[in-house]
From TrEMBL:
The keyword DNA damage does not apply. Belongs to the cation transport ATPase (P-type) (TC 3.A.3) family. Type IB subfamily. InterPro entries: ATPase_P-typ_cyto_dom_N, ATPase_P-typ_P_site, ATPase_P-typ_TM_dom_sf, ATPase_P-typ_transduc_dom_A_sf, ATPase_P-type_domA, Cation_Transport_ATPase, HAD-like_sf, HAD_sf. It comes from Nostoc parmelioides FACHB-3921. This is Heavy metal translocating P-type ATPase. It is found in: Cell membrane; Membrane.
Amino acid sequence: MLYPQRFHQFTKEHTDTLAALLCGVLLFFGWFALHLGWLGFALLLLPAAYVIGGYESAREGLTTLIKEKELDVDLLMIVAALGAASLGLWRGEYHLIIDGAILILIFAISGALEGYAMRHTERSIRSLMSLTPDTATIVNQTGEETIAISQLQVGDEIVVKPGELIPTDAVIVSGYSTINQAAITGESLPVEKTVGEEVFAGTLNGYGALKLKVHKPAASSLIQRVIRLVEQAQTEAPPSQQFIEVFERGYAKIIVIAGILLATLPPFIWGWDWETTIYRALTFLVVASPCALMAAIMPTLLSGIANGARQGILFKNGAQLEKIGKVRAIAFDKTGTLTTGQVQVSQVIAASNYTEIEVLKTAAALESSSEHPIAQAIVQAARDLNWVRATEVQAIPGQGVVGTANEQQVIVGNIAFIQKYVNKLPQELLEIAPSWEDEGKTVVWVAQGESHGDEYQVIGIIAIADMIRPEAAGTIARLRKLGIEQIVMITGDNQRTAESVAQAVGIDQVFAELLPEDKLDVIRSLQHKYQTVAMVGDGINDAPALAQASVGIAMGVAGSDVVLETADIVLMADKLEKIAAAMELGRRSHRIIKQNIVIALGFIGLLLIGNFLGNINLPIGVIGHEGSTVLVTLSGLRLLK
C-alpha cells in the first residue's frame, strides 16, 4: 500500500502545478487571439483555461456544498469568474472573460504553491524506518523460528542478539546486557538488565544475548500505548487551527447572500433597470471576492516557512508558524534536547602522586576491550594519549573490569567494586564523588597494584555525564527576553540529574521520572494555565506530549521517527537557539498577516462603496481587486528576508 500512496502524492502535487501552468498558457493565448480579433479561437481557449484552472476549486467547493452544506471561497471564486464571463458574453465585452480567467489563475497558482509546500515539508521529514522490528525470533521445540510480531503469544520465548531492537515488552529469563531505553524513558545512560527484569519494545539491546518471555500481548506494549496516545492527542486540535476555514466559509455565505439581494431588490427599491442591477451585482461578486483577503495569509505563511527552512527550521504547516509566536509556556525534554544524549568524560581527578593523564590512560587500557557506553566514553577521551590495550581482561557485570596493564593489575568500576580490593580510599576523592553524583554524573573509580600482589591504590576518579548543550543556557535566557512566562523540564530521568541540568541552564520547574502518559498530563496542565504551550523533545517517549502541545518541536538529528512524524516543527540541525528564531519569525508573520488583512479589507470596502455609487465598472473593479491581491502578496513576501 506504500507505493500507491506515494504515487498519489506525487501525481497530486504535480497535477496542481501543471493545471496552473496550462491555465496561464491558455489565458495568454486566449488574450492574444482576442487582441488579434480571432474571436472564435479565443472562445475555445478561454473556456479551456476556466475548466483546467478551476476544476479543482470547483470540485472542492461543490463537495463542501453537497456534503457539508457549507459555502467556501473556492465556490465563490468560481461563481464570480463565471459571472464575469457571462456578463462579458451578454454585453459583448469579451475582455471580461479574461478578467474571470485571471481570478481562476490566481487561485490555481495559490493552491498549487500551498499544496506543494505542505507536501514537500511533510515528505522531507517522513522516515521510512519502523519503530519496532516486523519480526521476532522465537524458541520452540524444533529450534529457532522467525515469525511476525503480530503472531507472538503470551508465554512465547524469544531471543534477542546484541545490537538488535527488542520486538515487544517481555521479561528476561536468561542472559545479561545493557539496554538503551532512552527512546522510552528518556534515560541518558543504558540500563543494565538481568534475569527477572522487564524490557520494552523498541529499545536497543547492548552487548549481551538475551532470552525473553512474552508476558503481555504485543498490542499492549508500552510503545503501542505511546502510538495510541499520539493519535488521541492529534485529534484534539485547538479551535484556533480551524479559524481560517471557518472565516472563509462565513465570509462566502455573506457575499453570496448579499450578491443575491443586490441582483433582485434594487429595481423594486431604487428603480434601477435590470441590466444595471445585474451588472452591479456581478461587479460586487468580483470586487468582494476574497482573493486579496486569502492572499493576505498564505503567501505570508509560505514565505515564513521558506525563511525558516533556510535557517534549518522546518514548519509542517502554516498554522504552526502563527501559533509559535503566541507561545506563553514551553516544556523541554532533557536527554537529547537540553543535553547531547551522548555520555562523555566531563572531569578527571587524580589522587596524590598521580596525574589526570595517567588516570585516563590506565582506565582506557582496560576499557578498550568493552563495548559499554561508559567504556567507550573513556576510550574516546583518551584517544590522543599513548596507551597499550590491557590483557587478561575480565568484566564483572554491573560492577567493573579487572585486567593487566603495564605489568600491573588494574581495576576500573564503581565504588563498591573498588572497595573489594582497596582497604582505604583517598579522603579527598570520597568528598568529591558524592557531589558529582548529586549532579547526575556516573563516577568511575580507577585503582592499580603490583601484579599478583595484594596491595592496590586508587589513582583517580572519572566523571561520566550526558553533556549539556553549549547553547542551552543562552536559549533559555533568550526565551525569557521574548516574554515566555514559564519554562519547565519534563523527563524520564531521575530527579537529581534533572535538577542539576535545570539549575545549570536556568529552567523554572522540573518534572522528573515521568512515563509518556505523565508527560502528557504535564502538558495538559500547562495548557490549562497558559493556553498556548510548546514542547521540545526527541524520543518516542516525548511523542504524546508533542502531539498534545499547541506546538510540538522535534530535534531533527537526534529525534526518533515517530517524533519527527508527530511534531509540528523540526530543528534540522538540533540547534536549540533556533527555537527563539522560530518564535520571532512567528511573531513577524502574525504582524504582517494583520497588516495585510487591514489592507485587503480596506480595498474591498473602497471598491464596494465605489460600486454602490456607480463610480466603477467591472474592468476597474477587477483591476482594483487584482491590484490589492498583488499588493498584499508582495507584503507577505517580506518574510523571505
